[in-house]
Amino acid sequence: xxxHPAQSQIAKSKNRFRVVNCGRRFGKTTLSAWEMIGFAVSAxxxxxxxxxxxxxxxxxxxxxxxxxIAGDLIVNKNEGRLELTIKNKFGGTSxxxxxxxxxxxxxxxxxxxxxxxxxxxxxxxxxxxxxxxxEVLRPTLTDLQGDAMFVSTPNGFNHFYDLFNLxxxxxxxxxxxxxxYDNPFIPIEEIQKAKQELTxxxxxxxxxxxxxxxxxxxxxxxxxxxxxxxxxxxxxEWNIIKAFGGVDFGFVHPAAAMTIKKSGSGKYVVxxxxxxxxxxxxxxxxxxxxxxxxxxxxxxxxAGGIAELKRKGVNVRDVIKGKGSVVNGISVLRELFKANRLxxxxxxxxxxxxxxxxxYGGAKTDPKKDEIPVKENNxxxxxxxxxLMMESVGREQKATHTxxxxxxxxx
Length: 411
Prior knowledge:
- The chain has helices at residues 5-11, 28-42, 55-70, 102-107, 129-137, 159-164, 188-197, 200-206, 224-227, 235-238, 281-291, 303-311, 325-338, 349-355, 379-401, and strands spanning 17-22, 50-52, 74-78, 83-87, 93-100, 117-121, 147-152, 173-178, 228-229, 240-248, 255-263, 268-276, 295-298, 342-345.
- By secondary structure, the chain is α/β, with parallel strands linked by helices.
- A hairpin with a 4-residue loop joins strand 11 and strand 12.
């Protein structure tokens, strides 16, 4: 096995969970392939899966390289299932299957199996990462006390950033940071050329593996230091006077039900999130009904889901839809962040991830053309937008049509 010095440093680590933050062309695929084969050879009947953002990515990134490195160790190759069976040192065989993350996210693929080692590649691009890792993949390592390696280039301050910092809380985790410059086989002049062609932030993220805010970020006013609440929410201290929420329906994409609490001083705290894929309208409605919100603001485009909510006795309120509603709703949230009136509890990990990745697809150049963001990474955000946009509209209407101050009843 021939690894360059930075790769060797990672390979020699004895930590159970290694988090590798690296620039493009660092050599993470080569490192991952050698690590997979090493674990597969060293245990009898081992299971060593590899995950990429999509199944096509898994095929394009890893399938050919695994075969080239494994060589004569290969006993069986199933290209349809993307599975390699290789000989191990005990005279038996071990399995190396390749998956797309959507298999975890949409079908909970992996539940019930026992894994010796897992490689998760391009982790920063995974949707709903924490649910997939904590509920599906982490338990597969329990029986065998298996290991995992998380490899990625950053994508804003999302779940990969949190994962990278876990080493300060859990000694099982060890994080590594290497840049493209750390690969001695990449000509420096090629990296310098890329530096001249890319924006400073894009180069820093892609080549220096530096955590930067995503270019063209929609909610650039959101700041972790100012807007995230840690620990238990003391409702008396906050003077909470109202609990309500928004719902974004989904099956393939995650459904989101976001609980929002309002203080007597007009501040809002997103205190809880429910963020799951594969949920029917009836299942979503059952969960929302159990929350007993005072008001529920659901996706206005889903008539079936709204009907289910009403059948469950949920107090469904209308949400404005049509031209300009998305832009106006985004403006409401941005103004609340600017005024330090909107806060997110640390447990809402998927919402925080969306706040740090929801974008216009790059730096905005034409405000009229680019005012609608790319419809990705916005399930929880849409649910929050429905609720806060309409709560804001309700306040304006009450101020216009009533002479006395309107007060919400305490729950």
